[in-house]
Write a structure and sequence with these properties.
heterodimer, A: about 190 residues, mainly alpha, about 70% helix, B: about 400 residues, 17 helices, about 0% strand, elongated
């Protein structure tokens, strides 16, 4: 754990809100991203991300400063996000088109892995995943949480984590299967 | 060659979540099975392709995100205050329930005495912790029997002030100020929130005196949206929230519990998550289990309903009553209770929740009965709220307002 971060967290726990603000700045993109990938709406993700930090602050006195803060607050955000999706108004409200994630114009490490059309297909496929599967996929693939951490965050058992994640991956794989030939070979080559 | 691993096993293998025996078995299989190896490679490619999709937040979104979070935390009551507020709320509820009953009984026995009570200073609404000395010195409710009489007087006074618009009900906050200054005394003109944002040099007077009980029923339908005291200048205003909260000082001392044993951290985190499970189950009941301090504080600021209604200290989503209102009347009562809370403590820590509560209950009233006046009131309250630079729950309010245009079930 970054000593500076631990120091900030200690100060925050002592009541220094500006120290906690610095912590928020460090993790705001990550937490917002986790929320947005699950709820798919900026305005809801905004609420969820703020609420996650607020709850983390509230429970800061229980937090072990020797442990990384990021996964913890992301778990809180993910839980809030998935519970929002379980709420009646969220279920009744149609999801936006899959435009929240847009292909980056910058050359990334996977530039060329998938062409624009395939990326659009993937975006739509992600948006079309069942909420529970998308939450598990997000926590695993984007947040790199372990199955155990995901299970704790979403209050489900390890077997459910494994099955939901597998189904999500299979569904995404099927959606972009026709584009994955070279990609699969490339991924294979990296292994 | 061994049997093909299942898709779940391949997925778990990819994540290195299999026990050693299973992992070794699959590794051996993959060396001999091109199909499974290709399958695994495709799963890995899916992950990598997904990671390559960047998120795009609105421009400038993160510029003040952290300060907004800090502002919301600063606006929350501390748990340390709970016992004090609990006692205050209990006393307030007792006053709100018992005092009107006592007055009603007395009025029934002596109508003349009840009429005379019109001149008594108003202070029926339970004193909030920050209530003015005047309210503390007048802890009695207006007699129920005199309520209509006083209301009629208020309307006559209003018609004088506004050139005979006798059928209009004066905005609640203006009436409150009138009560502060005495019947018929001139009051500062209410300005729309937007106007005040543009003209901070003319701040609206801060209301510090609780409203008189006699106005409770009359303002149910037609009330003014919440006013607000403009924030100090040089406060950036962003649609996502109140950067104006930046000036809020940190609490003098946050809970300074000794660090618990490390093994409690995971349990605490889980507990936090479980709380979230409950609170987001339904947006109408969102954050229902939020901390009691906020509930007690709001309860102290309102009438009997206020003790039940309360608003969340977490802010982003309204904490509603234990169960959603089932009738339009019930929703309207709750709406006006929230409105009183917001007006009594316009800058208090629960004011934002109270304002959102007003809107939420107004929307619910409309959704329940479809009355046009409920819709108009909710739209007006919502617009006024969204015009505030310190609106902490703009997102939720927009969603609430959206419900006004959705077909009623």
């Amino acid at each position: 754990v970054d000593p500076h971060e631990a120091d900030l967290l200690a100060k925050a726990r002592g009541g220094n809100l500006f120290a906690f603000e610095e912590i928020v700045k460090r993790y705001q993109r990550r937490v917002y991203g986790a929320a947005l990938r699950i709820v798919r709406r900026h305005e809801v993700a905004d609420d969820v991300a703020q609420e996650a930090f607020i709850r983390a602050h509230r429970a800061l006195h229980t937090f072990d400063l020797e442990r990384p803060f990021g996964p913890w607050v992301c778990r809180i955000a993910a839980n809030l996000a998935i519970n929002h999706l379980r709420s009646r108004p969220a279920r009744e409200e149609p999801l936006p088109e899959g435009h929240l994630e847009t292909p980056s114009s910058a050359a990334g490490p996977l530039e060329g892995l998938l062409d624009g059309e395939a990326r659009e297909v993937l975006v739509r496929a992600l948006a079309g995943l069942p909420d529970e599967q998308r939450a598990v996929f997000t926590l695993r693939v984007f947040e790199d949480l372990s199955y155990k951490e995901i299970a704790e965050a979403l209050a489900i058992n390890l077997g459910t984590v494994m099955s939901r994640l597998s189904r999500a991956r299979e569904r995404l794989r099927a959606e972009i299967a026709s584009y994955l030939g070279p990609a699969g070979q490339r991924a294979e080559g990296r292994r | 060659m061994s049997t093909h691993p299942s898709a779940e096993q391949l997925s778990a293998f990819l994540d290195q979540e299999l026990p050693d025996a299973g992992r070794l078995s699959i590794e051996e299989h993959l060396r001999a099975c091109d199909a499974c190896a290709a399958h695994l490679a495709e799963l890995a490619a899916v992950d990598e392709a997904a990671r390559a999709l960047p998120l795009e937040e609105p421009a400038g979104y993160f510029d003040d995100f952290a300060s907004r979070v800090r502002g919301r935390i600063a606006a929350r009551p501390t748990r340390r205050a709970l016992p004090v507020w609990a006692w205050a709320a209990a006393a307030a509820v007792l006053l709100a329930v018992v005092t009107p009953l006592a007055w009603r009984e007395r009025a029934a026995q002596s109508p003349a005495a009840a009429m005379k009570a019109q001149a008594a200073p108003p202070a029926a609404v339970p004193a909030a912790p920050a209530a003015s000395p005047a309210s503390a010195a007048s802890p009695q409710a207006a007699p129920a029997g005199a309520q209509e009489t006083r209301m009629a007087e208020a309307e006559r006074s209003l018609s004088r002030t506004h050139g005979g618009r006798a059928n209009e009900v004066e905005p609640h906050d203006r009436l409150l100020r009138r009560d502060q200054a005495g019947e018929g005394a001139p009051v500062p003109e209410f300005q729309a929130s937007q106007d005040k944002r543009e003209a901070p040099a003319q701040p609206e007077p801060t209301i510090t005196t609780p409203p008189p009980a006699r106005l409770e029923e009359k303002v149910l339908v037609e009330t003014k949206p919440f006013g607000y005291t403009p924030p100090p200048p040089a406060t950036s205003q962003r649609p996502h929230g109140p950067s104006g909260q930046q000036q809020a000082p940190p609490p003098a001392a946050a809970p300074a519990a000794a660090p618990p044993p490390a093994d409690r951290e995971a349990a605490a985190a889980t507990a936090e998550v479980v709380v979230g499970n409950d609170q987001f189950r339904d947006a109408d009941r969102a954050k229902e289990k939020d901390d009691d301090a906020a509930r007690q504080r709001r309860g102290a600021g309102g009438a009997a309903d206020g003790a039940k209604l309360g608003a969340t200290s977490s802010g982003s989503v309204l904490k509603a009553a234990p169960a959603p209102a089932q009738t339009g009347d019930e929703a309207r009562r709750r709406r006006e209770t929230f409105r009183r809370m917001a007006l009594e403590q316009p800058e208090g820590p629960g004011a934002d929740d109270a304002r959102v509560g007003t809107i939420a209950e107004g929307v619910r009233a409309y959704r329940l009965e479809g009355r046009a006046d409920d819709r108009v009131a909710a739209e007006r309250d919502g617009r006024a709220y969204l015009a505030r630079p310190d609106a902490l729950q703009a997102t939720r309010v927009r969603l609430l307002l959206k419900q006004l245009s959705e077909p009623r079930s």
